[in-house]
Amino acid sequence: MFRRASLLLAILAGAHGCASRPATPDRAASPRILLSTTEIYAHKLPAAQTPPARLYRPLPLNEGMGLLASLPPRDIVVAGAKFEVTVDPPAADDRIVLLYDRIDGAGLRYGATVVRHRARDVPLPVFAEEARRWTEERFGKHAPIPGSFAHFTPTWREWRSLIESGGILALVPPNRSRNDFDPKLIEQAHAAGKAGVVCRAPLDRWPASFVQIEILRADVTPHAWSSFESFCETRRLLSARFDAAISTLRIGEWLRETARQVTASDSAGWVLLPGAAFGDGREWWGTRRPRLTVHEGIDLRFLSVGGERKELAAGAVVTAVADGEVVRVFKDFIGQTVVVRHRTGVEGGSIYTVYAHAAPRPDRTAPYPVKRGERIAEVAASATGAPSHLHFTVLYAPDWLPVSRLDWDTVNPNFVPVMLLDPLQGIAPGRDSYQKQER
Ligand SMILES: [Zn+2]
């Protein structure tokens, strides 16, 4: 494993748990599988019939072990999954049977709680640990495995599960049937000059005990595989450096200064509605639809001044958080987005602050240097149904990624090597900085 590759691998997709989690997840946590109403109906349970208190899902021995060992330590909703569930206990055999109990007060939802194996009922978390040991004995621990590999590009959701489960989820090939489960994929992706993530899983030992991963770079042709552990470890090291770098931006002060500037009051603070914080999955306006992707930053719209709520109006001045350089301005769905690069001493890349839904200064053309507190834009007028507001993102991008590639398509969806950071990380809420509103 050469160091350069591990660094590149380390810069992927932030805030998804890998950095703070050991490579082998904590099995003591209680995994549950939830069945949706649709799934219950799919098993042709007459709607009029009282839903049974318990359902049974028989699993074959080996694959069942692989599946149970791979359960991430949190709930999984298996919407649309196709598997056999019975109302009556299956005849005793050498299979593993997963028992789902109806969850009180949750309608027709069931949670997997117990595993029945050889006439023995074992709590799921205990059995999951047993299954993990079983698969490790047979298929090896998390170690790179020589041999032939199948390749696939995980979806965002799958990738997230892979990271959150320490990679063990790869034991179950969720996309084995997908067309992209193919070695040619890498050649194609490189040829197309795309950036992204490719996973590989050994074909000759299935269930696979591990995946390796590669970040594809648009500008580099050789393949650079990394073990998942080294990916996680480097990410952990890098994220510690991000913590230090982000604190040099003094975002808390900027929030206070901006609130003061907008309201002419010393005690003004921002109010973040549900949906406005980093990582939130819903819009905070209108019908609160789900966002297409989780929120990449924070939305500044409402202020609290002496207990009264005020709104950030179009035309309000937007200033740079810290010294840096305005490197790019581009259109977004309300106004324009201004990208400022800060040289914060992070190896191999830079921290950027991004100000969206704004009207940039007409008298300056990027690139140009800015000082902390210097005006770079104004809040743009409302458009497309979303009220005018300032969207603020903090991210890390590697220096090899051209600034021209930084836009909401690349920052946002799957697998470009940009790491989104929580702008409020390390900043305590307070009356004169920000509050998160719960509802
Ligand atoms: Zn936003």
In short:
By secondary structure, the chain is α+β, with helices and mostly antiparallel strands.
Describe this structure as you would to a colleague:
The protein has three domains: 3-24 and 142-238, no CATH class; 33-137, no CATH class; 248-436, Distorted Sandwich (Glucose Permease (Domain IIA)). It contains nine helices and 23 strands. The protein has helices spanning 3-9, 37-42, 61-69, 124-139, 156-164, 184-191, 228-247, 251-263, 408-411, and strands at 33-35, 54-59, 76-77, 96-102, 110-117, 120-123, 149-152, 196-202, 212-216, 225-227, 269-272, 298-300, 302-305, 308-311, 317-319, 324-331, 336-342, 349-360, 368-370, 375-379, 390-398, 419-421, 434-436. The two termini are 48 Å apart. Strand 16 and strand 17 form a beta hairpin. The protein is globular and about 75 Å long. It has 439 residues and is an alpha+beta fold.
Supply the key terms.
439 residues, alpha+beta, Glucose Permease (Domain IIA), 3 domains, 9-stranded antiparallel β-sheet, 9 helices, 23 strands, 21% helix, disordered N terminus, binds zinc ion
Q: Could you describe the largest sheet, including whether it forms a barrel?
A: 9 strands, antiparallel
- Classify the secondary structure makeup into a structural class: alpha+beta
Number of strands: 23
Cofactors, ions and other ligands in the entry: zinc ion
Q: So what's the overall shape?
A: globular
Low-confidence stretches: 1-29
The CATH topology of the largest domain, please? Answer: Glucose Permease (Domain IIA)
- Supply the CATH superfamily name of the largest domain: Glucose Permease (Domain IIA)
The CATH architecture designation of the largest domain is Distorted Sandwich
Number of helices: 9
Distance between the termini: 48 Å
Give the amount of beta strand, in percent. 25-35%
User: Mean pLDDT, nearest integer?
Assistant: 76
